[in-house]
Design a protein that fits this description.
This protein has helices at 15-18, 28-36, 62-76, 94-105, 116-130, 136-155, 165-177, 192-203, 216-225, 236-240, 259-269, 304-314, 318-338, 342-366, 372-400, 406-416, 443-452; strands spanning 2-9, 41-48, 52-59, 89-92, 184-188, 208-212, 229-231, 245-248, 274-278, 295-299. α5 runs antiparallel to α6 and α6 (136-155) packs antiparallel against α13. By secondary structure, the chain is of the alpha/beta class. A six-stranded parallel sheet has the order 7-6-5-8-9-10. Strands 2-3-1-4 form a four-stranded antiparallel sheet, with helices on both faces. The radius of gyration is 28 Å and the shape is elongated. It has three domains: 2-161 and 314-336, Glutamyl-tRNA reductase, N-terminal domain (Beta Polymerase, domain 2, 2-Layer Sandwich); 165-311, Rossmann fold (3-Layer(aba) Sandwich); 341-428.
């Protein structure tokens, strides 16, 4: 089996491509179930954010796994693979794990070191777990990635001067207007990104924040948190006519503001300039809005310039985090190595269970007058004999797993017990190759975290 990561993100695809390949929260469970049912895919999870649509798989064949994903995306989005294949990246085994760990640490985010992604990885794990699309390996790998992310933010300064896309949007507004304490801002949407935006605006001392959402109650709830004002959706043009800055982040699949709306708004504003930031994927604001005089529109990709300044303060921590990631890969590799003994244990159990049942059946036929109590005693003690016989070879197999010549020693045990041809013994396990652990200083921390969420 192999670990496979595949997807598109802001590094490989522009926003106009990314927005075509997004899933709503309601769609994700069905998407996971459909992909999980495809050939070669044993486990799957999906990390979906405004900047990435990324799958993590356990597959029995890398090429088949990649082709099945291409086929699924082509059919689901009704788009020929030739239009998106160049934007899709894949990583296998160790490279896939490194990629996931970097994602969880915020090293692969547009805003280096941001912490929002950590919650999104946790959400991906929770959703996949709830829909039973992950098994032994991803149930361990995803929580381990969360552990790595937490460790990096605890042991380094990568998270200091915390930023996010929403923070970058406010920094861009400051760059254009200077101080924001005399500005009025309209937030379109009431989700997590909108709440983060409102939080940053509040700390920047804006004069007034307005919140508009299709569900008015949600707009009220967000506005109340920051002493803002909720606006009915049908009154959005009135607000657009008054505010200085607009930040939009909804979950809509189509544009919520188009060129015609802004043409009407700018007549009412008498062409007084308005600054609009679209941090949604798919985009909320029609790019043609930029053609309207007095409208200055920025989308999520254009925030990279603002983000650059923050990167310089954080890049010095990257080398430290790379070392942490290397240590944690050693830890995960050690855990993976222990899996090579599982097929042997299953094969031994399968064979001894069959012998046990056949023996019991033969015994009962020869001694038909046994009482139920006598049968129970015989079954219990016979089972105990089998377990005691298997205890030492299984213990030894666990001890040598992952060590030099472990394969040969495990095969010797299998040959002695005659289970080499058992189907369950021939099962494949993921191997990362011959790694030489550099350190185990983080293993205790990893185990504590994994144990706290019930994975050990």
């Amino acid at each position: 089996m192999y670990i496979l990561a595949a997807g598109i993100n802001y590094r490989t695809a522009p926003v106009e491509i990314r927005e075509k390949f997004t899933f709503t929260k309601d769609e994700v469970p069905d998407v996971l179930q459909k992909i999980r049912s495809m050939n070669s895919i044993m486990e799957c999870s999906l990390v979906a954010t405004c900047n990435r649509t990324e799958f993590y798989f356990i597959v029995d064949n890398i090429h088949c796994g990649e082709q099945n994903l291409l086929m699924f995306l082509q059919e689901y989005f009704n788009t020929d693979r030739s239009e998106f294949r160049q934007y899709l990246y894949t990583h296998a085994n160790e490279r896939a794990i490194i990629h996931l760990f970097k994602v969880a640490c915020g090293l692969d985010s547009m805003v280096l070191g941001e912490t929002q992604i950590l919650g999104q990885v946790r959400e991906a794990y929770d959703v996949a777990l709830a829909n039973n699309t992950i098994g032994t390996i991803l149930k361990q790998l995803l929580p381990h990635a969360i552990c790595v992310g937490k460790r990096c933010h605890t042991e380094t300064d990568i998270g200091k001067n915390a930023v996010s896309i929403s923070y970058a949007a406010i920094e861009l507004a400051k760059k254009i207007f200077g101080q924001l304490n005399d500005k009025q801002v309209l937030i379109i949407g009431a989700g997590k990104m909108s709440e983060l935006t409102a939080k940053h605006l509040n700390s920047s001392g804006v004069e007034q924040v307005y919140v508009v959402n299709r569900t008015y109650q949600r707009a009220q709830e967000l506005a109340e948190k920051f002493n803002g004002i909720a606006v009915e959706w049908e009154n959005i043009e009135d607000s657009l006519s008054e505010v200085d800055i607009v930040v939009s982040s909804t979950g809509a699949t189509d544009f919520v503001i188009d060129k015609k709306i802004m043409e009407r708004v700018m007549i009412r504003r008498k062409n007084r300039p308005i600054f609009m930031i679209d941090i949604a994927v798919p985009r909320d604001l029609d790019p043609e809005i930029n053609e309207v005089d007095g409208v200055f529109l920025y989308d999520i990709d254009e925030l990279e310039g603002v983000v650059e300044a923050n990167k310089k303060l954080r890049e010095q921590e990257v080398n430290v985090i790379d070392t942490i990631i290397e240590e944690e890969i050693d830890n995960f590799s050690t855990w993976l190595d222990t899996l090579e003994v599982i097929p042997l244990i299953k094969a031994l159990k399968h064979k001894t269970d069959a012998i046990y049942e056949n023996t019991m059946e033969s015994l009962y036929n020869k001694l038909p007058d046994l009482s139920e109590r006598e049968k129970k005693v015989i079954r219990k003690h016979t089972k105990s004999i089998i377990n005691q016989i298997l205890k030492q070879p299984i213990t030894h197999a666990k001890e040598v797993a992952g060590k030099k010549y472990s394969k040969e020693q495990i095969e010797l045990i299998a040959e002695i017990f005659g289970v080499l041809e058992e189907p369950c013994y021939k099962a494949n396990v993921v191997k990362l190759g011959n790694r030489k652990p550099k350190s185990t200083v983080c293993s205790v921390k990893s185990e504590k975290y994994l144990a706290s969420i019930g994975r050990l």
